[in-house]
Amino acid sequence: MNKHKAPLFERLIEHAGGEHASFHVPGHKSGQGLEASARPYYEAMLRLDVTEIAGLDDLHHPEEAILEAQQLAADCFGAEETFFLVNGSTVGNLAMILSVCRRGELLLVQRDVHKSVIHGLMLAGARAVFLNPEVDPQTGMTLGLPAEAVELALDKYPEAKGLLITRPSYYGRAMPLEPIVQLLHDREKPLLVDEAHGAHFGFHPALPKSALSCGADVVVQSTHKLLTSMTMGAMLHVQGNLIERKEIKLYLTMLQSSSPSYPLMASLDISRKQMHTNGEELLGQGIAVVEQFKERMKELSRFELLETKPVDYGSIRQDPFKVILRDREGLMSGFELKDALEARGCFVELADPQAVLLVFSLASTQTDAGRLAEALENIGNTAIDDRAHRTEINVEQGQSTYTYSIVPGLSEPVSFDEHVYRQKGTAQLPLEESIGQMSAEMIVPYPPGIPILCPGERITEEVVKYLTQLVRMGARIHGMISGEVPMLPVLIAGRE
């Protein structure tokens, strides 16, 4: 296989350069129908926006350029078989859950998963036992599952169909996987990994190992997050004999669009080529930008980086492209710092009560990093009154957006059979009145998209206190009804 080729992209370019008359969809006819003001932005791209015509292959039955592009991706990322995803990692998470679980079957699940995992459990009608990750007491960030917790869960629930984990966390922490893989494989159970934020792992010595190289059975990666494909571009990788690949293919065909975007798929091909041929060098350049930014930060006493000390968690790796920053003096919450940076033209990935998350990549430049440092310097030099909520922010030091309720141990099995919830009535209650009730929806601060409550979970006083704080600080929360009095949807049958 020739890693220097990008077969799908090259075939699209060849087609776009020919003399053709289009009598097929899409209706813009290679950009000819564009509205005039959009031409400078879309015209070149839409020449590549075609459909499944002769020579351009079919994502749902690949035999030519798409097949070759996926085979090259498998070779690049270390899989036995790779599937292109045009609906993001979300569709990969849905497909891998549905391929493993039938209605009523049980899956072990790391608690701090993306909401798409919960949706997958609901579609499957599966049950889940949640395993709570370890939490770094210095920062409040989750660190991943210890192997001991996995062994305990496997012993207690031998009927489990496998384990689904998130690695790395949204904040960039990556746990070692080999001991967990060994525990599962000894019992002939698969490890499913949502590695949405780790498509770049393994391509540079400063980065954590990829989940595939650690022996995971099926891995979903968002190629668009830290690599360079278009948004929604992702891949699903499979290896070993513990995953039924026909099931994966079936569900991907059912869940993905029957009219996939060719520019998007070609961007996956190009991004793979970039990693295959020049990945380590490009990532090294991006890491150098991050290191220079961190050196500049040492000059700004107002702000500090939240970093796990290797002496305490030597086996946990941190993605150098994820930088967590907070106001050392506690004058600004993460949400306020986000707003202040955006007012100065620097847009961050997310904010939580204490910090902002900065995401760098191989495409980050010294110019961008310099602008960010200057914005922080300007914020640091701006007089800020000693806010009434300063004490509250300081109290929250050491808490991220989802560690408020994480304690060691396993949950009881939780049913995600949606038919059960559809038979129950719902009501909307003010936050304070919802304590003790059962949530009717997922309640999800977004980003990062990690549910604070799942359907059927009991609403505790601790949860309500935390949601109240998030609302007051300006967080976006999916599932809640916003307004002067924030409301939570609850199951009437769950009221006591």
Automatic annotation (TrEMBL):
Gene3D superfamilies: Molybdopterin biosynthesis moea protein, domain 2 (3.90.105.10), Type I PLP-dependent aspartate aminotransferase-like (Major domain) (3.40.640.10). This is Aminotransferase class I/II-fold pyridoxal phosphate-dependent enzyme. Keywords: Aminotransferase, Decarboxylase, Lyase, Pyridoxal phosphate, Transferase. The lineage of its organism: Bacteria, Bacillati, Bacillota, Bacilli, Bacillales. GO terms for molecular function: transaminase activity. Its cofactor is pyridoxal 5'-phosphate. Residues 7-367 form the Orn/Lys/Arg decarboxylases family 1 pyridoxal-P attachment site domain. The keyword RNA-binding does not apply. Belongs to the Orn/Lys/Arg decarboxylase class-I family. Residues 423-478 form the Orn/Lys/Arg decarboxylase C-terminal domain. The keyword Transferase applies.
